[in-house]
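(Structure overview)
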Amino acid sequence: MTPTLRRAAIALIAVATLTGCADTGFNWGWHVVSPFTAQGRVNLGFLVEGFGATILLSLFTLVLSLSLGLLIALMGLAGWTPFRRLVPEFDKSRAHPFVAPGFTGWLSRWRPLGGLNRIYVEVFRSIPILVMLLWVFYGVPTLTGFQITVFTASMLAIGLCDSAFEAEIFRGGIQSIERGQREAARAVGLRPWQEMRLVVLPQAIRRILPPLGNQLIYIVKMSSLASVIGLGDLTRKASELNVTVFRPLEVYTVLVIEYLALILIISHLVRWLERRLGTDQSRPRE
């Protein structure tokens, strides 16, 4: 067991002990979620059913937000001052000390895209996800005439909002690649798209993997808001069970443990991937 998981287990045991032994006069009803009773096992099985919707929504939303985020980030590079001229007409007096012309110089032929990038990022970064969920779920069918499922509405709303953050992460990672890497790509005759795909993006992804992992955790937590519009995720299952057994503290304690376990697993996988890709410079590569 890793130190993080060990500390989490100790904390959970301590909380359970303190709440169970505290003399507050509260009539605890842990039997409704106890694996040692028949009804408790049924209730726990009902709660666990929400894992499927939560994980699927998080994965599909991650794919959508990463794709949109990368596209918006590339649009933002179109307005990057050091690359407003194409090679070989690049103005060296205005060059950035850490980057070189290439893909972004080629992209700068569409400079208005930089303005669209800023509008997109500022708009979707400013809208609360719950508000976006409600607007997409009720607004899209009204405006387009097409009915969308709860899952699709949740994926679109969370994905659009998260992609604004992903775009800034990608932009920062791409701009952090040193000038020599771009010059080397040009020296071996790579085209602009090849330069970005084969040289810049692989190195940028290694550098931005930790914040991308944080965004995945953020998506998992924000997926709980989809229960408001009826998605049968972990939070929705807990709310439905609470209406039946009327034991909110016990039921939502199990919900906390479910999210904690899921996010600790994701954190462990992200750290493992960081070590595999060599992004964790403080530890030797495996």
User: Anything to note?
Assistant: The domain at 40-277 is CATH 1.10.3720.10 (MetI-like fold).
